[in-house]
Each structure stands twice: as C-alpha cells, then as structure tokens.
C-alpha cells in the first residue's frame, strides 16, 4: 500500500492549529488515512506535518491554547443566587409594565437576567458552551433609561482571569435563527420580545464588537444594528467590513437611517 497527500483542493481541520487548512493522506484506493496524517497549509505559523511513513508528527509550535487553560468561569451557584428579587429590579419592573409579565418572564429566563442591590440589573455573559464568563451590573430609572449616577461595573474582570463574550451568546447553541447585534443589553432584551424570530445579542458598548467576541458567530448570518447616530453607524460599518475580511458574514442593518438622535431600535417600540 502506498500513501500520498490528497491532490484535490479539499481542506480539513488541522489537528494542531484547528484551522481548516489541512490536507490529508489517502491510500491507493483513495481512502483517507487516520485524521492525524496530513499537512497543514499554514506552514509559517503551524507547520504540522505527519506522514504515515514517519514515526511522529512535526510542527513549528503548539498553538497557544491559553484560553481553555487559564480562563476563569463564574460558578453556576453564583449566577443562580442573583435570579431573584425581581420586584426590586427597576429594569424588570419597566419591562413588566411595558410588555407584560409573560413576555418579561420569558426574557428573564432566556437571558438569565439577575438582580443587584439598590434596584440594579445583572447581565450575565454566558458563552455558547454555557460557561459563565462575567457579569455587568447596570442601573436603570423607572422609565427604562439608564441611571448614569450609578456607574456600570463588570463584576469579574480580565485582570482576575475572566473574559467577556457577547451578551446572549449562549442562545446561539439553541437555534439557527438569524443573529442581530445591538450595543446595549437592554435593547437586545426588548428586541427579543418584539422580534422573537431573530436571536438578539449585545456587544456591551460601541467598541465592544471585537473580532475575538465575534468569532462565536462564525458560520452565522449576522446583522449589526447600530444606534441611531452618525458615529455609531460609521464605527459599525467599518467593523462590518473588518469582520468580512475575517470570514464573518456581517452586514449593517439600519432600518431608520433618517433618525440621528442617538436613540436605538428599542426606543421606537
Ligand atoms: Zn495547522
């Protein structure tokens, strides 16, 4: 039996770096050998090569898998302890009054919305593997607008080994709906009530739409829904182009281009 690298342009996930740039070995009958045998196209950065004629694989270096090894996650019990006292939660009271109890309860369940002291709301960031990454605490006024006298705060920070993700990312694992991203957590929640046929995520701020966070969306159709200001539109248009270059399909969705007063889509409901 003789073996050779497959000559078609077909690429597979590399066992070393994970990128789909791996050419596999086939035998005389055009059957694949074990997935470990092959050559990675990324010769500079990965360089994985394992021939069936060799004793072991060679490669430039192991990719950094720091994330999986060093990232810290919040225990589920900690999250659960915040899922209470909704009568003291100013944002939840606003949602109840605006959209009714049934829809609000569904939103609480979908996004694991928690309650902080002093009427605050806790937005948990849970990734698509259901790891609890961090939480953002925010305060609202009874009209649903932010109470900027009480500052937002991440409760688990990167200097302690935690990492942010898109708010609502955990919802991606459950369906194949189109994904839309807005800036604010509150907006994502309200839009999920109004447009349940779309999965709504939040970037947690204008500059929160990073390539690292967006990687969770590879393979999805993504709409970026900027706030209604020229600056936000320009920033996210730029971001959409950048994401396209990184093989992520993201397009700007701007349903009301004539509005430039800084409101966002949820303010129109
Ligand atoms: Zn590789």
Helix content: 10-25%
> Which strand order do you get reading across the main beta sheet?
1-2-3-4
Ligands, ions, cofactors: zinc ion
Question: SSE order in H/E notation?
Answer: EEEEHHHHEEEEEHEHEHE
Mean pLDDT: 90
What is the SS-derived class? alpha/beta
Number of domains: 2
Q: CA-to-CA gap between the ends? A: 68 Å
Number of DSSP-assigned strands: 12
- Cα radius of gyration in angstroms: 23 Å
> What portion of residues belong to β-strands?
15-25%
Query: Which of globular, elongated, flat, extended, rod-shaped describes the shape?
Result: elongated
The number of helices is 7
Low-confidence parts: none
Characterize the main sheet.
Answer: 4 strands, antiparallel
